[in-house]
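Lecture 7 notes: from sequence to structure.
We start with the chain below.
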Amino acid sequence: MVAGHARLRFARSRSGRLLSALGVRDVRSFVRVAYIHNAGYVGGLAGLIAAVIFLRKRRQKSGHLFRDLFEPRGGFDAVGRHAGSAMAQPS
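Predicted structure tokens for the same chain:
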């Protein structure tokens, strides 16, 4: 009795009329997919916030965001070869 009453109230509500007009037959599955869809956006936002925090901490620590990513440790010799490579070592 309670479930039937809830369905009747939902069917008469604005959301129920909208879903009926859109041709949605299985409201429970529709709502479940909507939550899954929106959770993807929440996860993306959480990842973006985590990346911004990570990069800000990295910049505070090293003074530069990407220098250590593009310049290998040890630097380069006078010819422009990486100092750690076998070719850069005098024979």
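Points to note: The mean pLDDT is 75. DSSP finds four helices and no strands in the chain.
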